[in-house]
Structure formats: structure tokens, C-alpha cells
Amino acid sequence: MNISKPEGASERSAERLVHVPLEGRAYDILIGPGLIGRAGGEITSRLKGRRAAIVTDEHVGAHYLEALMDSLQTDGIEAVSLSLPAGEKTKSLEHLSTVCDMVLTARIERNDAVIALGGGVIGDLAGFAAGIVRRGVRFVQIPTTLLAQVDSSVGGKTGINTRHGKNLLGVFHQPDLVLADSAALDSLSEREFRAGYAEVAKYGLIDKPDFFGWLEKNWKKVFEGGPERIEAIAVSCQAKADVVVEDERETGRRALLNLGHTFGHALEAATQYDSSRLVHGEGVAIGMVLAHQFSARLNLASPDDAKRVEAHLREVGLPTTMGEIPGELPPTEKLLDAIAQDKKVKGGKLTFILTHGVGQSFIADDVPPSEVLSFLEEKRPK
Amino acid sequence: MNISKPEGASERSAERLVHVPLEGRAYDILIGPGLIGRAGGEITSRLKGRRAAIVTDEHVGAHYLEALMDSLQTDGIEAVSLSLPAGEKTKSLEHLSTVCDMVLTARIERNDAVIALGGGVIGDLAGFAAGIVRRGVRFVQIPTTLLAQVDSSVGGKTGINTRHGKNLLGVFHQPDLVLADSAALDSLSEREFRAGYAEVAKYGLIDKPDFFGWLEKNWKKVFEGGPERIEAIAVSCQAKADVVVEDERETGRRALLNLGHTFGHALEAATQYDSSRLVHGEGVAIGMVLAHQFSARLNLASPDDAKRVEAHLREVGLPTTMGEIPGELPPTEKLLDAIAQDKKVKGGKLTFILTHGVGQSFIADDVPPSEVLSFLEEKRPK
After folding, report:
1. Most buried of A80, B107, B136, B259, CB within 10 angstroms?
2. Could you give the angle at the alpha carbon of B30 between the alpha carbons of B179 and B236, nearest 5°?
3. What pairing do the DSSP bridges indicate for beta strands A165-169 and A160-162?
């Protein structure tokens, strides 16, 4: 793996740098404690513009906005900020309009930056605005959740939700810099940290069996903070970057990142995206276990691998079965509908990420819906 | 030039094909009479999807929507349509939202198409929607004005207006096919055709002196229709395509396409985009004459070239002086403000497209605002 220490990092020995070598739009991901307080210097050393428009949410803003503004000011960046309500509902056309208006009012030009300070919601929304204002201005991600640091802040997918579904409007707009402040994760709830950890484990399960083994041994230190946390984030960012560079627009291999997500999304939809019942990472955790169990049922993988995955995720405190989701689930046919989404697809075969074992996942585009139906029927709580 | 006749064109001898060889996103521009009535076949032979969402305006829709729908149906494309009010005000976030909702309701997937049937307003709006629905679906341009056929339908710039200015939100989203039906131009008013012709002449003035000479001889036939009109559109599309392939995102050479546009946009702003006083192409015509006169004043070009340009544009019936714009113009300082836009730029030097003579334009990024001011002061009506 190509993870190096950035220049001048001797006194910040834990810091890591992941370079994303997209042609003409290469960018750095820095991972380490205290990056929010050093954001100004990291930005001015990489971007030409000296104006910035910060988008954050009310929770994150209360914690980190002042430190970020101070750092930008110290380095001569003229910044304005906008704090939006926290939560998935902020990913709306109405809020996109508000953000774009604020960015234009701040006279952000192509070389200036929109900065997203927050989790995936803020990153997706601010990134979309950065992608369409003047047909694209610079974009800096400062993700403050584990989920955003290891997943949504890397790779350029942006978007908002519509009445037709999630992320149905958006653009591919790569960031010009990602600052993953590992210390910011200390303010996350245990549940939120665990949900992000599901995506960390996912990278091991896709194609890094050694990393999964390392996580089995070191997960407690990742939760506690310190070098292991930074290492886990860096390996995850590198894994995501590798896939994105190979297949930026998801015409092939990038689909592997959906391991656990097909079942997971269906469960999120089945619980009406009610975060008191299920958050995204929890859906992914259950989904990954189901993907391994389903692969075993199809004689593609050993049942022992499914047991191993389930054991680890359970040990860290993640849900691993549908029965752990509070409240009633809809009928199995409805779950399958959510998986198939489109009637056209339902008539034919389904595409799933399946596996031959830990770290050996693959894209299967010939899964019969009837197999999924009977599998889900067996696994759902009776 | 690389303009060929498309296959099967023997019986449609006048038809031309311009290929835009963008890497991974190459597309064809077909130019000829009757293409709207053959759209279904041209689309199905190039695109995989069999659904389409047509966006048009009430004027154009009344003329051509039925023929287009019939052709799509004949070739097995399931299509829905949306007719919006004609005019620049339709390039709004509100209408973008309406278009996206209609496209999503029609279950347009990545390989299906959004089709723009109309002028630049419809093309810019529908193209923006096509660029953001599912982070990009296929896009077919069927431009029905000369301006759209030779300029806005080629090159992938899309956008809407905001209270801060024109085209401030948008994406680069290349079409997958452009069908320029030359017969559709017969229904344009003389004034509208002339306005589009200003952009045709522009390609000669940028770097094709022979083409400008050809236009001086053949412009009447271009206005009348027939092979010369198709030839003029094809040469223009090829010229634009060449620039776009070289510099898709306007970081360099693409700026040459702004010949006449810096002065032209300032005049459009000065007349509050009131089309009864000035339409875009008329502003460009005056702007191109001013650009040649200004270049002569700076001893970059011969005054004879400016006279030649003015003579031709006047012969076709375009305005060539600020004095021809009905109503009062704002003070010269205000015109300069509109040119400089940003205070930062105003303090320093301005970027203009200047020329060494017909077909010898270049990017000048060191124009002193004081020179522009005294030039405009001299040229404005007293």
C-alpha cells in the first residue's frame, strides 16, 4: 500500500497521507489528530483561491466551526459559513438552493473553495453545490464522522434526495483535499462510531483478508483512538481510493463497494430510514453478514466465513441479524421489492455482491430473485 | 475539415455529420432537413435505452413535438414530454426541479435519454437536468434555432440563471447525439435567424478567414436554406467541436469562442436582457465589431478589417453600433463595470478576445481598463 507520511510530519508522527492519483484531478487525503486546527495551512499550500464558504450542521458547527474559521483567518483565507439543521432531511433541493446562494453571495470563484465540515449529509450536499456553482469550484472535505472519513468523503459522489428516492440528483465532483481529523471522532457517540466501523470492516471483507484479521485483533484500539485508529482510516481511504481511480463512475469494479449494501439499503427502506431503529452502518453490518450467509447457501463460500464475520461484528457491538432491528419488518416480498426496486429488474436476475470467503468478494449479476426470497424468509425473525 | 456524409445518406444528399471525438464520450452531430421526423432511428442506432423524456417550450412544442413523438414511438422508444414557457426566465431552479421530477417520474435510467427540443434555453435547462439525474443520464439535443444549432447545443455547457447572474449554476454534460434539423429553421423569424448568424460569422472571424470570405459571398443562400445553410451549420459545428475537444472545460483556448461576447454581454446586461431591445446574437454582432475596432485602436489590426466586418454584418441586417440599440444606455463606467464584474479584476487588467485581423483572433489578458473606458466613451452614441 502506498500510504506515506506527509512532509513536516515528524512532530506529528501519527499523521498519514493517502494520494488519490486521478488524472488531472489528483488530490490528497490527510489523516491525523488536530487537522481542523491546521486546515488553513493545508488549504493554502494546495489551492490558489483565498476565499472559502463553509457548510456545516448545527451539531458539528458548535464543536468545530470556530477552530476552523480561526485557522482559515490565520492563513489569510476570507471565509463565511452556513450552519444547517443536522440530519438526512437536509439533503434536499431547498437546502441545495440555500447553499448555492450563500456560495454565490460569497463570490466564490473557480479557484476558491466550498468546505464541507460534517458528516456524509453535509459532504454530499456541499459537494453537490461545489459541483454546480460556476460549473464547478474547488471543494474541501473535512469529514467529522468515521463513516464520512472512510467512505463518503472520498470518491466524488455527491447528491440530494428527492421524493423518488435517495441520492437521485447529484454529480461526480471530486474533492481537491480531504482533511480527516481523527481526534474529531472522539465526540461521536459509541453507536455512531460503530456504524462507521462497519464500513471499515467492509474493506477487509471485499479484498483485504489480512486487514480483516488485523481488525479482529486491534478493533478495541481503533475505538479508543491513537495510531491504530489512524491506521484503520488510512487503510480504508486507500482501499476506496484504489477502487475510485480504477472506476470513477461506477461502470464496473466500484460496485464491490456495495458489499452488504443491497440487503442493507432494503432494511433501511423497510424501517423508513428511521435512525432510532437502524442507521446506515448498522444496515450494512447486517447486510454483510447476510451476503456471507447467502453466499454460503449458494455453495459459493464456507459457512465458517459467515460465522467469522458475524462473530467479529457482534463483538464490536454491531447488529448482525434482522431480529435485532426494533419493531416490525414488512413482509419478505416487500423486502425483495426494495432490493429489486425496478419491475424490469425484478423480472430478470438481480445483481449482488457475493463472496467466496473473507476478502474474496465479487460481482454476481445472475442471482435469481426466488433464491433471495427464500433466503430472506428463512433469516427474518419469526 | 473532417465533415463527412453519414451512412445511408445517398438519398439525403445534403446531410452532414460532424463527429466530436471526446475520449470515452464521443458523439455525432447530424445536420440536415427532416431530422426531427427521423429522430427515433438515429437515437436507437446509437443509444441503448428505450425510454426518453422530452423537454420543450410551448412555441417549439406546437410545431415539432408531435412529429418527434411519432418518430420515437415508431422506433420503439417510450417517451413522455414536458412543455415549458418560452423565454430566458425558464432557466430557473424552479423549472429545473420540475424537469428533474418529470425525468424521475418517467423512470429514466442512465442509458435512457433526456431530449431537449428547442433553443438554447431548453437545451441548457434540459442538459443540466440530464447531468444531475442519477449523476448523469444520456442527453440528446434537438436544437431548433440557428443559435442553438451552431453554438449552445455543442460542447456540453449547461446551466440556469440565479439572482446573482446568468448561467451561474450548471454542469459540463456532453450530449450523446445532436440532431440539427436545418428545415426547422424555416419557422424562425428573420431577426432570430440573423442573431444566430452572428455566431456563424464568429467562427470565420476567430480563425477561418476563408469561411468568412465564403459567407460574404453566400450569406443570402444560407438565409434562404438549401445546401449552403447546411454547409454553414456544419462548418460552425466542426469549428466549435474542434475547440471543445482541445479544451473541454475552458481553461485555455475555448475562451476564443467569446470573441465579441465581452462587449456583447455588457450590452445585454445594460439593456436588462430585454429582448425587445437586444438579443444575444445582436449583442455579439456589435461586440465583434467593437472587438475589431478596439484591436485597431490598440494598433493590433488594420482598421480596414474592422470596416470589412462591420460591412458584412450590416449587409445581413445585424446591428453593428451601440447607437442602433433602442433606448438609453447606462453611463460608460457602468458598461465597464459589467465587463469587469468583479472588483478584483477591475483593479488589475482585463481579459479580452482581440484580433490581428479577420480570422486571427487571440486571447489578451493584459488589457488596461482605462483603454476600454476611453474606447467605449468614443464609440457610444452621443
Report:
1. B259
2. 100
3. antiparallel
C-beta of residue A176 within 8 angstroms of C-beta of residue A138: yes
Classify domain A259-379 by CATH number.
1.20.1090.10
d(CA A64, CA A184): 8
Phi and psi (nearest 5°) for A184?
A: -65, -20
Map out the domains of chain B as residue ranges: 3-246, 259-379
> Is the four-CA dihedral A333, A335, A339, A341 of positive or negative sign?
positive
Query: How many CB atoms lie under 10 A from the CB of residue B219?
Result: 19
Which chain A residues touch B168 with a CB distance below 8 Å?
A: 104, 133-134
B164 near A134, Cβ under 8 Å?
A: no
- Give per-residue pLDDT as tens, A171-218: 999 999 999 999 999 999 999 999 999 999 999 999 999 999 999 999
Question: Which residues of A are annotated binding-site positions for NAD(+)?
Answer: 120-124, 144-145, 157, 166
Predicted confidence (pLDDT) per residue in B123-175, tens digit: 999 999 999 999 999 999 999 999 999 999 999 999 999 999 889 999 999 99
> Is ipTM over 0.85?
yes
Candidates B101, B104, B169; nearest CB to A132: B169
Is A133 at the interface with chain B, CB within 8 A? yes
Query: Residue A136 and residue B169: Cβ atoms within 8 Å?
Result: no
Residue B169, chain A, CB below 8 Å: the answer is yes
Q: Which of B78, B248, B250, B324 is catalytic?
A: B250
Q: Which of B134, B164, B170 sits opposite A132 (nearest CB)?
A: B170
For residue B341, the chain A residue with the least C-alpha distance is: A107
CATH for the B3-246 domain, from 3.40.50.300, 2.40.110.10, 3.40.50.1970, 1.10.1740.10: 3.40.50.1970
A343 interfaces chain B, CB cutoff of 8 Å? no
End-to-end alpha-carbon separation of chain B, Å? 45
CA of A140, closest CA in chain B: separation in Å? 19
CATH number 3.40.50.1000 given to A3-189 = no
Residue of A132, A164, A174 to mutate, testing the B interface (most B Cβ within 10 Å of its Cβ): A132
The two beta strands, B78-84 and B51-57, are parallel
